[in-house]
Amino acid sequence: MGTAFTHRNLPRLLLQAREAVMGHTRPSLREHQLSDQQWRVLRVLGEHGAVEVGRVAREAFILGPSLTGVLARMERDGLLTRSRDPEDQRRTVVEATPQGMKLVKRLSTSIEAHYEFMEKSLGKAKLKQLYELLDELIALEQPSA
Question: Which of 2, 31, 89, 119 has the fewest CB atoms within 10 Å around its CB?
Fold first, then answer.
């Protein structure tokens, strides 16, 4: 007989929810030869413009060594440029190229349409509540500063 857990498996549910949502996004990404990680980088750049590499890593949830490879491939494919931060030469800044921004714009249309579908299906209040609950959970589980 196995261990009797009182609570449902939250990490598994969060992964299932992520995969369910990404199931609608991935076909569009693959159509443009983008991985999930590359899209997360482009989305950060699309939202913020030129961004320091450390911030890209944090916001796109990609660890340093993996991010280096992702950025190299995206630079090779003409989606972004890397340069030294003019204010601190030790730091690298990445920015989407016009081609990268065009891709962000194109993909954001179908992605936003899916968010509209979720909002319509769940209702504005429930979707807002979901965002708030996830934000609270993330804040709760953050290691104390």
Answer: 2
